[in-house]
């Protein structure tokens, strides 16, 4: 984090990335002193309502985050920056998206948690768009022109007021990660109740991790049904980039038991702030994250630690577990929406645990056409996972098994949704290898 004083006294000259949160109500003109070098600008956490008319002077700006401010209109001057391809205006008060504000270079647009009721059809001009975050708005429809964004891979549109899931959306060639819970058309199946665990029966010790929807703690439990150490996820209770915490909890519960899932033990009650949460088995420390979330450069693809490798046996075992679990989810009408390596924990034996249902959505299994398309959409995400596994596999070249894995991968990634296999087929094929 930088300071306003540093900016004004010129000590930041030559800077390529500036992050400034100082209760700003006016855009600091001194930022233009960095016009020759500035590539990344983060003005999140201020009180800004507008950008200067000459914002386009920032000719080298590639990434601009302006979340948690007070904008009501997405600024048109964003289109004046020739290299700008990542824009984030999460948690503002935006109601209007002028057509002129949509820079055609955009790869990544974050508009989560605003008040947007309509998108202009000109969004179809953003041919490079790969990632579009729209959760937590007031959209009642998506413009059909969005179908022209053929590179779109990840779309979050949960917690809106959409009346339908458009057919054209489900045939988009690269769409792989989709979240749509919490809309007017959303399905709400009956959820079998979990055992209730009183908050007072839990003693929290340390934080194990934190995500967009909540914080996971290690805790000890004094109940008869969950004695000893457990993991407790306490939800923040607000809309996330993926959707609503309540939808995440319901999807996880409805998923049922599977060797590739962390077992649920109960649902907390009596939290002092009224927050919801789940009690789960504590994951053994031998497990570690298979991948890391996408970077700003990779956009929608996971990244891996330098030198990270897997044997072919490990890769195959991981792939089979995830295919089996995905098949179970889709048999229950659940789309995970976030099938990524970074949501998978593995150990050295190739055992895998899949999690994070924050982007999960229910769909109607009685709608055969829609069910088929939604499953094949997620199959494309699985194809990327296979591609990732093969990319870090130490025994891929020339191995018969790896060649067959590559063939399955290519089938999963077919641009035509109808040519992709289903998860039940993938599970069976992987088991034969």
Task: Say which CATH homologous superfamily of one domain is assigned.
Answer: Transferase(Phosphotransferase) domain 1
Pick out the low-confidence regions: none
Cα-atom radius of gyration: 23 Å
DSSP summary, beta strand count:
19
Count the DSSP helices. Answer: 6
State the CATH class of one domain: Mainly Alpha
Span of the ends, CA to CA: 51 Å
What structural category arises from helix and sheet content?
Answer: alpha/beta
Q: Which helices and strands appear, and what pairs or packs with what?
A:
Blueprint: H1 4-8, E1 17-19, E2 40-42, E3 63-65, E4 86-88, E5 108-110, E6 131-133, E7 154-156, E8 177-179, E9 196-198, E10 202-210, E11 214-221, E12 228-235, H2 245-255, E13 264-269, E14 277-281, E15 288-289, H3 312-331, E16 334-335, E17 344-346, E18 352-354, E19 361-362, H4 368-391, H5 400-412, H6 423-432
Parallel strand pairs: 1-2, 2-3, 3-4, 4-5, 5-6, 6-7, 7-8, 9-13
Antiparallel strand pairs: 10-11, 11-12, 12-14, 13-14, 15-17, 16-19, 17-18
